[in-house]
Each structure stands twice: as C-alpha cells, then as structure tokens.
Amino acid sequence: MSSVAPADGPPHPSAAGSASTAASFHEMWADLSPVGRDDDSGGYRRYAWTAADTDCRAWFRAQAESRGLIYEVDRNGNQWAWQGDPLAGDAVVTGSHLDSVPDGGAFDGPLGVVSSFAALDELRRRGAEFTKPVAVTNFGDEEGARFGLACVGSRLAAGRLTAAEAHELRDADGVSLPRAMEAAGCDPSAIGPDPERLARIGAFVELHVEQGRALDVSGDPVGIASAIWPHGRWRFDFHGEANHAGTTRLEDRRDPMLTYAETVVAARREARLAGALATFAKIAVEPNGVNAIPSLVRGWLDSRAADQETLDRVIAGIEQAAHESATRWGIDLRIARESFTPVVEFEHALRDELAKLLGGGIPVLGTGAGHDAGILSASVPTAMLFVRNPTGISHSPAEYAAEDDCVAGVIALADVLEGLACT
Ligand SMILES: [Zn+2]
C-alpha cells in the first residue's frame, strides 16, 4: 500500500482523529501484510487451517489482547474479540475473514478485520461510551479454497452446514476438516450449529473491499450493500460423435464443440441484454485429443443477476439457444443445475439505519459475490459496507484499495458502531 497521504481540500472536523486512526490502520496492515504471501506470484495463500492461516489467527489474537479485549474461539473455530460482556446479548458484531483464495489479493477479508480493530481504536479515541457489547470476528474458512465449500465457519454457526457434512469435507490430500482443525491446534469436537451465540447478536456489519467498480464509477469511497445477487451453476453436456479430424467430412460431423461455442456466445449476449452476468470458465472435453472430433464437451455456466426473474430469463435464453444449436449440429444436449443460491436481501431497517448514520447520498449497491454476512443474514440482522476498489479486480494480487479510502471505511464503520452500540 502507499503511505498515508493527507487528504486534499478543507480539513475535516475530525482530521486529528483520522490521522491517528490512519496510523493504527497502517500499522496493523503492515504487520499482517507479509503473512502467507507467495514471493513469486505476490498473491496470498492463506488457506484454512494451514500454517499461514494459523499465523493470521495468532495476529488476530495478539490484536485482541493488546487492546484488552476478551478473546474467544467458538465451537467452529471462528475467532471473537469482545469489548464488553460476550454474554450480555444485543451485541454489535463486525469483522470478516483472514483466509484467501489461491494467490488472492490483500484486501478481500483482511480489510474488514483490520478496519474493525481500527474502528474500535477510533471509538476509544472519541471517548465513546458503549451501551452494548461490541465484538470483532474472524470467520474461519470463508473462501473454501482448501475444502471446496465457501463460508464454512459461518455456515456451521448458522446451521447451514451440519457437523456430519463438515466431517465429510476433505482437502486435495484427503485430510478431513476436523483433522485439519486439530492439526492447527483447534478442537473440532463440538463443531455444529451455534444458535445461542447468534441469538446474542443484535446486528452484524461486515466491511469488505468492493469486488466491482460501482463505487469507482459513482466516485464514492464507501457504499452500503443492498443485496447479494441470486446465483447458480449449471452443467451443459454436449454429446456428439468422436471421429478422425483429418478424414471426416465437415458435413458428416456431429461436433459438440460447435454447439458449446455457440452457447458461450449466446450466454454473453443474454447476460448483456439483461444487465446480468454469465460465464463459462470450466470445460471438460472427451477424448481431448488434438486430432479427434470430441464425443463430449461438458461446460459449466456460472450466472448471476440482480433478481430472480432476470436470472431465470437469462438462463431460459441461454438454454433455448443451446437447444437450437444442438438441433442444428445433431448434438444430444443435457443441462443440469448443480447449485443455486437465492437472493440475499440485507435487512432493510439496519441498512436504512446505516444510511442515516453515514449521512445522505451514500450509494447503496448490490453485489454478485458471496460473504459470511450473506450466510448470517438468515439468523441475524446483517449489513455490509463496501470500500472502493478502483480496478474492480478481486481474487487476484491486483486487488487494491487506496489507503485514504481504507481510512474512510474505518471512519464509516466507527460511525456505524457508535450509532448502534454507544450512547
Ligand atoms: Zn471476502
């Protein structure tokens, strides 16, 4: 990150507070930055329950203890740092995750955790008097890079993943999730739903780097989430006929690659017309020989849209185009929906409260990415803040937020926590 630069323009009334908040953010960020970074790619490899993740968790614990916060690990390995009594109820909780995708960026997750501690520092500097307990959290295994399922820590807590299902999760080396937790020094014996803990939370606010360019386009450093778009994955199996690439006349071929290609183009068209997203990014080909017409092309479609009706329309359009192409080229087509996540609407009352606390004109935006906040929203009133990411790039070492924007995010989060948890 760049060094802290003074903001241009007239001094903000809380400029002195901002300067020390910027310093505490900067110090934590510098401290955490080298952990789990790959020297060659420059990306992060902080996979759940590995050495890098353990180092991140040690960092979290040290931050909690250095502030005199009450430190806890819950039954699912999620970390908590409490200002006030964890058992009092109606708590205001903020935080995110510290794990990463393979060669991930620095901000996705850690920005929320670092900003949460920095926002607490800011509130203490303001002399805020807490009327409710406040906690900073680090949810375990949000990205799912190691065990193939996202948001494991929050899913377990919310009862969206059973202990039995969690015991079945294996990494690429066949190590089960409980064994991995154990190896990292975390007791897995009680993993499972944690309704009593969630019942003690009055509001959960997750700050996250934006994974798109809406704030860059609108010219705002910080925004509020409206909803997480519904999204799903579909498998398209295009069955044709394998044959010799050098001797089979074009007229005689049943080439599923043609239908696949036309379907990819149709997906792009349907998504563009609907203002949605559709991506074919994974493909399997049989027999996968350079001189053999394929017998099978299997392609996976990921599609997301702002609402269910739009998503249904996009998928119907893509399916129709795929069937028409299949008929044209003599291909047998089968389509199966492999997963689906309905829209997550963040609680309107909390969202409106945030907008009020942050002043008028703050943008409210949807996102296509999943988050712990989305998982928890079924159990707890939940909201999200986004910090501008000028390139919109995420899940890549190029992911970025300017330090001034990060500090603006910290101040916004502090304002929200003060409004929700202080007199
Ligand atoms: Zn994230």
From TrEMBL:
Region Disordered: start-end pairs: 1-20
Record's signal peptide: none
UniProt keyword list: Hydrolase
Family matches, as Pfam families: Peptidase_M20 (PF01546)
Cross-referenced InterPro entries: Amidase_Cbmase (IPR010158), Bact_exopeptidase_dim_dom (IPR036264), Peptidase_M20 (IPR002933)
Family according to the record: Belongs to the peptidase M20 family.
NCBIfam families, per database record: hydantase, PRK09290.1-4
PANTHER family named in the record: ALLANTOATE AMIDOHYDROLASE (PTHR32494:SF5), ALLANTOATE DEIMINASE-RELATED (PTHR32494)
Protein name: Allantoate amidohydrolase
Organism listed in the record: Streptomyces enissocaesilis
